[in-house]
Protein: Glycogen synthase
Amino acid sequence: MYIVQIASECAPVIKSGGLGDVVYGLSRELENQGHTVELILPKYDCMRYDHIWGLHDAYRDLFVPWYGGAVHCSVYCGWVHGRVCFFIEPHCEDNFFNRGCYYGCSDDNMRFAFFSKAALEFLLRSNKRPDVIHCHDWQTGLIPVLLYEIYKYNGMWNQRVCYTIHNFKHQGLAGSEVLKGTGLNQEAYYFQHDRLQDNFNPFAINLMKGGIIYSNAVTTVSPHHAWEAHYTEVGSGLGHTLHLHQDKFTGVLNGIDYGFWNPESDRYIPCHYSIDNFEEKQKAKQALRSQLLLRDENKPIVAYIGRLDQQKGVHLVHHAMYYALSKGAQFVLLGSATEPAINDHFWHEKNFLNDNPDCHLELGFNEELSHLIYAGSDMILVPSNYEPCGLTQMIGFKYGTVPIVRGVGGLVNTVFDRDYDQNKPPEKRNGYVFYETDFEAVESAMNRAIDLWYESPKEFEQLAIQGMEYDYSWNYPGKNYVEIYESILHK
Ligand SMILES: Nc1ncnc2c1ncn2[C@@H]1O[C@H](COP(=O)(O)OP(=O)(O)O[C@H]2O[C@H](CO)[C@@H](O)[C@H](O)[C@H]2O)[C@@H](O)[C@H]1O
Structure:
């Protein structure tokens, strides 16, 4: 099968979070299973060019229809750790992708509407006719709309779309200018409830809703989150739309790319280990302490790695930091916040805790350091308010780092409480789970984990090893996606 992935991120060249990991990891797995995969991405000024090999001109004069005129673009091609990627660079005053950031601009809707249009125009002009176009999140929600309303009539009548939602919170609400810009000209036609009109704001179109309605298959990133999005407020107002389209909507649990996330071969950690020589993990712990200037004492390290925003339960992250210290543990945080109030808050905490030898807060994005933290910590905290899948707990498993999580979304499908899980026998349990959002809930789970570490270190190690035994690679999810692609091919 010939599959083209269109997305706003692909790790490690463009990564702000889990979307990038998934786009890369799934593409690699699909190729391993014998399919042809190409990726189309924006050419951001701030991406990690050091992860691209052989970048060259692939299509020089691409003219993308825009507001009745056309924007001149260049398309570059290069390899990102073996994947063929096409990067679209528009030459226009809007400077869509030369902003020094991936997201967070006031015209993000226009930037990614343009990218969606440009990606399809590139496929059309370069005579690429994939069997399946797989696109992701609100940024590419317009792809199936444009395909079925415009490009189908220009020769792309045989392409099918799979649309994956990684985060229902950000849906891409826009005004009619997006329609005008992209050539979706009959405003009244798109501003209808069964098309792009937002379910709550009648004056806005909703790009994610368009993605759901127009795609042949829609997925989200874990089975439990699929249920939550359909039946609870976690669908952020799209539950009814999902209900109407339930026949094509499923949850596929993400995987982890073990080529990249693997303590046996990780290039960013100073020692390599597996279940067979688990004691070597101690060296990673020492390296982490020495890099972050933590004191070397017999204490567990609890880590948090992730975006710092409401989704991730920042109030519990903050509380857990002090609770861990009070329980005789060390705490390491690696995170970045886009919301100014949260950013200020954590900078304040960082300054306050600066001289504490048991705590380190690293504010910013640092891929290399994240690997050392996964390897060097004993526990990884994921106290999310909601979590469509969650990759950090799965990476934690691979590195023998025990997750302490809130039982929501994909965390329910992957973490099984050591003491209370009803469905797994003790030898299959792999972490700690709490459910409420108050301080007592997170404390109770941390308490059990930290006490076990101190009082029964062998049992704690056994729990970590049981996590390492799980296979959360892309192998199975890759097969699930191929089945979905096959099911839509001839529809
Ligand atoms: N400051 C930092 N420095 C270095 N690395 C950092 C970092 N902050 C985060 N990361 C890394 O980014 C990834 C984040 O994974 P998450 O599962 O938390 O995804 P996120 O919530 O962004 O995305 C959404 O998409 C993913 C993928 O579908 C879902 O798992 C998730 O539930 C959903 O919210 C991990 O690889 C983590 O190590």
Remarks:
- The chain has 17 helices and 17 strands.
- The mean pLDDT is 97.
